[in-house]
Fold each of these.
Amino acid sequence: MTQTTRPPLSTLDGQPIGRFAFGCMQFGGRADDAASAAMFADCRAAGLRHFDTAYVYAEGASEKILGRLIAPERERLYVATKVGYAGGAGSANMRAQFDICRQRLDLDSIDLLYLHRFDPETPLEDTLTCFAELKQAGLIRHIGLSNFAAWQVMKAVALAARLGLQIDVLQPMYSLVKRQAEVEILPMCNDQNILPVPYSPLGGGLLTGKYARGGGSGRLAEDDRYAARYGQEWMHHCASDLLDLAEELGTEPATLAVAWAAAHPAQPVPILSARSSEQLAPSLAATTFEMTPALYDRIAALSPRPAPATDRLEEA
Ligand SMILES: NC(=O)c1ccc[n+]([C@@H]2O[C@H](COP(=O)([O-])OP(=O)(O)OC[C@H]3O[C@@H](n4cnc5c(N)ncnc54)[C@H](OP(=O)(O)O)[C@@H]3O)[C@@H](O)[C@H]2O)c1
């Protein structure tokens, strides 16, 4: 894949947002105030500046906790939130949720606003007009989409261009056990100068190896949606093989999984996450891990490569 030149998104004080983000989905849920503050401090110590939350996370507690943590150094940070997970992508719902996001975060303007998922009931023109108005009013700096198929993004790109806008960021799911994004999403981002900021680089915890080690407790054991998402047998074999490889190399599978997700040629910015500082440490170690091309290929070989979009396997 030829690398495109993309002017890096930056913080208000002009720093590039960096190669990794932290996701605050657990703030106010599985991570209480103290655990959230400790993880935030760990991220800052590791040089992370980009923090991701959403209107729906922990019924608003995630945004409130993040708002308190960023206050002393707002200008140095890049804050992203999402609207429209429920209630649709129409302007009235997006604006109503966005105003609540700003109140909870205690911010007048937000660096990056995502539509959380595609809404087949709302014309994309309405959504993009809403983004255009928010941007024109200085309430958002960048525009993001999440959980969109490539054709939906390209439709949004074309409509946005008519309004003089660009889609800045796409947030897809991507990990060693969820590689669909390699087929169209990541090449499209590269081609369109859209920054890919993928979520769940650990497959919701599967790629930490804790379930392969036996007796692992966590999201996959507690949440039926995640159990189904990561329920296929080959995914568990992959996690087990990654654990073996990490043991051979004297590192943690989580470190390999996060570093691998970041090393795709489209240069995605994975969103790390955890429920405690202890959990977060191996993911943060990925930010300084040296991923060689040989190791990248070895890790990639642990899971099936998705078929090309044309299905012409012999040409892949
Ligand atoms: N746009 C979207 O639709 C969407 C969807 C999901 C997430 N996101 C964003 O992406 C961020 C990351 O997503 P994610 O939480 O799914 O990422 P992930 O990295 O795949 O999973 C993180 C989870 O893995 C487990 N874990 C992490 N480190 C561990 C360790 N060392 N040992 C044992 N378990 C460990 C923890 O869950 P347990 O302890 O419960 O196992 C932790 O919450 C979120 O915070 C959110 O900002 C966006």
Amino acid sequence: MVAIQGKAVVVTGGRRGLGAALVDEVLARGAAKVYSTGRSAFSDDRPAVVPHALDVRSAESVAALARTAADAEIVFNNAGILLPGPLLTGDFGDITETFDINVFGPLRVARAFAPILAANGGGALVNMHSVLSWLGGAGAYGASKAAIWSATNSLRSELAAQGTQVLGVHAGFIDTDMVSSMAADKTSPAEVARRIVDGVEDGALEVLADDISVGVKAALSGPVEKLFVALPV
Ligand SMILES: NC(=O)c1ccc[n+]([C@@H]2O[C@H](COP(=O)([O-])OP(=O)(O)OC[C@H]3O[C@@H](n4cnc5c(N)ncnc54)[C@H](OP(=O)(O)O)[C@@H]3O)[C@@H](O)[C@H]2O)c1
């Protein structure tokens, strides 16, 4: 349970999409400072926002963010990519890129910030999964989100001794650039951000951000062939 008021917060991928909504939400709840990242340098007029260039594929880039954000108390591992393509015939470089950004990226961030969170009182680490962590049919993206879901659950145990709250988030379609080409019902980034930040402040270990995530989680004990979705790409 970590109150946002007065905290220093990191949001990877905070320049746009869900990350931008998370930045807005923590500022609205009184965050003292928000380190918000994009892959290239950018500006933000709000005095509490510290824009920072970050590529989660690079350990050096993550280390530079950690040096700048040494006062961080809450870290949102939000940055991610979706490169559509089948596992068997899709570009193999897209598959390794997806894992580098969606799995090894947040793991690099977690490793760099674990000692910082410990030094600053424990705090919270939030990892973005997806409803596709649980459903086949989304190729490398779904596989990467299954992997980061598993990593989150292990990190929760590894970080327990230092008192860090580790929260994993599952969501269906969110209305951002990532899925702009897909026709589907989408939840607004602001609504998802509100539910995630509620989870941080309530001490939750998991946030199911929409009805689809609640329904699919409930179906996990059912037949495996039902755990499939064809992405509307
Ligand atoms: N949209 C959905 O339907 C949905 C559903 C469930 C889960 N999610 C997850 O929610 C998170 C946010 O997604 P979104 O929909 O907001 O996506 P988005 O609109 O495409 O934004 C992605 C963000 O990630 C950043 N990013 C991409 N590659 C990066 C890299 N190598 N290093 C650092 N930052 C990088 C981007 O930075 P730039 O600004 O520099 O491009 C951007 O800020 C992702 O983890 C995604 O998988 C999304």
